[in-house]
Each structure stands twice: as structure tokens, then as C-alpha cells.
Design goal:
By secondary structure, the protein is of the alpha/beta class. The chain contains three helices and six strands. The protein has a single domain, classed as Adenylosuccinate Synthetase, Chain A, domain 1 (3-Layer(aba) Sandwich), CATH 3.40.440.10.
Length: about 140
């Protein structure tokens, strides 16, 4: 037995082989029915997937799909980049839809956080003139 009274069980890891829409979220949604913990380990709020359960549509970008199953614990792990505004908006929409978030969603204290000044720095670097670099063949 593991601390908390749960016994050891199966583990499944869903990993994408490319950037973009590969259907990982759909696979995770199917598997959440048989697992007690679902963790998201990487990515940011620019990703996501849509899940429809009992005719209700949920759009998830940061929160793992396990949150839609009351018996499942969801964890946002170390490698996830969290935009606090996007996170709070997503959690509020889940709560408004009747999803139990409190006690079912946990965020690693080592998850990465993107703040407004990060966006300003990125915008500045994208709009800055490129330096002139000469490449000379020998």
C-alpha cells in the first residue's frame, strides 16, 4: 500500500512525437476513466483540447483532463508553463460548469510561470531589427 491507502496500480504515459494536434487529449480522456491521477508534465496554455462529456463541452488548455472525473486527481507538473490569468480563467469556467476543482487539482510549486513582462520582452524581441550577420565561406 502507498501512503493514503491506495494500492500500486498501472501507469500510462502519453507522449507526442511531434508538435501540434496529435490527439493526445482524446487518448488521455479515454484513459482517465481507469486512473486515479492524471498529470500534465509539459506545455503551456497555447495547447489544449476539447472534451464533451454527457453533452457538455469543456475546453482545457492547462488543466489535465482528469479534472472532469470527480474520482480523479489532476496535477499540473514541473514542466508546465502557467500563465496565471489563463489558469484562473480556465478554473473559473470549470467551476461555473459545476466541475469540482478544489481538492482535485494540484499545481507543482516548481511549475514555470509566465508573467506580463515576459510577454513584453518577447514582443520587443520579435519587433527588434535583426542584426546584420555576414557569413563568409572559406
Amino acid at each position: 500500500m502507498i501512503r493514503g491507502g491506495t494500492s500500486r496500480g498501472r501507469t500510462a504515459v502519453i507522449v507526442g512525437a511531434q508538435w501540434g494536434d496529435e490527439g493526445k487529449g482524446k487518448i488521455v480522456d479515454v484513459l482517465t476513466q481507469t486512473f486515479s491521477v492524471v498529470a500534465r508534465y509539459a506545455g503551456g496554455h497555447n495547447a489544449g483540447h476539447t472534451v464533451i462529456i454527457n453533452g457538455k463541452k469543456f475546453i482545457l488548455q492547462l488543466v489535465p483532463g482528469g479534472i472532469l472525473r470527480p474520482e480523479c486527481t489532476s496535477v499540473i507538473g514541473n514542466g508546465v508553463v502557467i500563465d496565471p490569468l489563463a489558469f484562473l480563467k480556465e478554473v473559473a469556467s470549470l467551476r461555473a460548469a459545476g466541475v469540482k476543482v478544489d481538492g482535485n487539482l494540484f499545481v507543482s510549486n516548481r511549475a514555470q510561470v509566465i508573467l506580463p513582462y515576459h510577454r513584453m520582452m518577447e514582443l520587443g524581441s520579435e519587433n527588434a531589427p535583426l542584426p546584420c550577420i555576414w557569413v563568409l565561406a572559406t
